[in-house]
Automatic annotation (TrEMBL), chain A:
GO CC, alphabetical: mitochondrion
Protein name per Swiss-Prot or TrEMBL: ferroxidase
Family matches, as Gene3D superfamilies: Frataxin/CyaY
Tree of life domain: Eukaryota
The enzyme's E.C. designation: 1.16.3.1
Alphabetically ordered keywords of this record: Ion transport, Iron, Iron storage, Iron transport, Mitochondrion, Oxidoreductase, Transit peptide, Transport
Annotated Pfam families: Frataxin_Cyay
Catalysed reaction equations from the record: 4 Fe(2+) + O2 + 4 H(+) = 4 Fe(3+) + 2 H2O
TrEMBL record, chain B:
Alphabetized Pfam families for the sequence: NifU_N
Matches recorded under NCBIfam families: iscU
Organism: Brassica campestris
Protein name (Swiss-Prot/TrEMBL): Iron-sulfur cluster assembly protein
Residue ranges occupied by any NIF system FeS cluster assembly NifU N-terminal domain in the UniProt entry: 29-153
UniProt keyword annotations, A-Z: 2Fe-2S, Iron, Iron-sulfur, Metal-binding, Mitochondrion, Transit peptide
Length: 161, 164
């Protein structure tokens, strides 16, 4: 089936490497394509691979930051059934009848995945230039998207950036 | 057979995969998911070299989810007359791709591109953490259509090509 291609990328130690992604699937995943489109044309942009330890650092900071901010938020808004939990690197935010958010690190892809009761599933890649986690399909930034959604759901603004 | 073994294993190993499990909460699969798991529709493969077949391959084993969805298209009408899938992943992923093959049959290609992951998720009552499976199924449909179209372009571009 040719799930994984034969090409290997060998990034230099402690440096990022720019590669052109064609196949295999995991490379396209890294770019934020949630699918492997066979025969993809050369219109793909070059991207940098995040090293795993760098990814963990960035992602952990993000997850802990979100945990802290949303915990405080929960103390201020009156939401029945509000609960936030961070375990096994999965952040689960319950908003009672308004729905549940699940955020997790997807290490093989160097992504943060989010499941939202408002916008459904999305997958964020770290964008160095923007210094933000961005969902390539919609160009949405993780923090901004959460801010907008939480405010519209709970009625109170939240500052996450 | 092997796929089901792999799928059963995947189910059993869910908590150790990247796909997260909520800690401390027990939940069971919705009956629609179990139905698709026990009675999967349209499991199998077409010959991917057949010009009337479009193949969508999405996901990555490292993430715990790979779906292959194939469509058989009637050249004259552009309708999808048959579909097959093979999925490596959790019960929700299997069910999502199974549902996808059911929904694409008998539809025009342009129409199936409008199938949304939210519809699949709703039909299977997928919990939040499994919404990503339904998105993958949507991607698989799109990839299959894209593949078919590209194959057609290639064939037409060559003109009167001899049979391979």
């Amino acid at each position: 089936m040719g799930l994984i291609g034969d090409r290997r990328i060998r990034p230099k130690e402690r440096e990022t490497t720019t590669v052109f992604a064609t196949e295999p699937p995991w490379l396209l995943q890294l770019q934020g394509f949630s699918g492997n489109y066979r025969g993809l044309s050369s219109s793909l942009k070059p991207f940098s691979i995040l090293q795993e330890d760098e990814f963990h650092k960035l992602a952990n900071v993000t997850m802990n930051h979100l945990l802290e901010k949303i915990e405080d938020y929960g103390d201020n808004v009156q939401i029945d059934g509000f609960d936030i939990d961070y375990g096994n690197e999965v952040l689960t935010l319950k908003l009672g009848s308004l729905g549940t958010y699940v955020l997790n690190k997807q290490t093989p892809n160097r992504q943060i995945w989010m499941s939202s009761p408002v916008s459904g599933p999305s997958r964020f890649d770290w964008d160095r230039e923007a210094n933000a986690w961005i969902y390539r399909r919609t160009e949405a930034k993780l923090h901004k998207l959460l801010e907008e959604e939480l405010e519209s759901l709970c009625g109170e603004p939240i500052q996450l950036s | 057979m092997m796929l089901r073994q792999a799928a059963k294993k995947a189910l059993g190993l869910t908590s150790r995969q990247s796909t997260p499990c909520s800690v401390g909460i027990s939940r069971s699969y919705h009956e629609n998911v179990i139905d698709h798991y026990d009675n999967p529709r349209n499991v199998g493969s077409f010959d991917k070299n057949d010009p009337s077949i479009g193949t969508g391959l999405v996901g990555a084993p490292a993430c715990g989810d790979v779906m292959k969805l194939q469509i058989k298209v009637d050249e004259k009408t552009g309708q999808i007359v048959d579909a097959r899938f093979k999925t490596f992943g959790c019960g929700s992923a299997i069910a999502s791709s199974s549902v996808a093959t059911e929904w694409v049959k008998g539809k025009a290609m342009e129409e199936v591109l409008t199938i949304k992951n939210t519809e699949i998720a709703k039909h299977l009552s997928l919990p939040p953490v499994k919404l990503h499976c339904s998105m993958l199924a949507e991607d698989a449909i799109k990839a299959a259509v894209k593949d078919y179209k590209e194959k057609r372009l290639k064939t037409n571009g060559v003109g009167e090509s001899s049979q391979a």
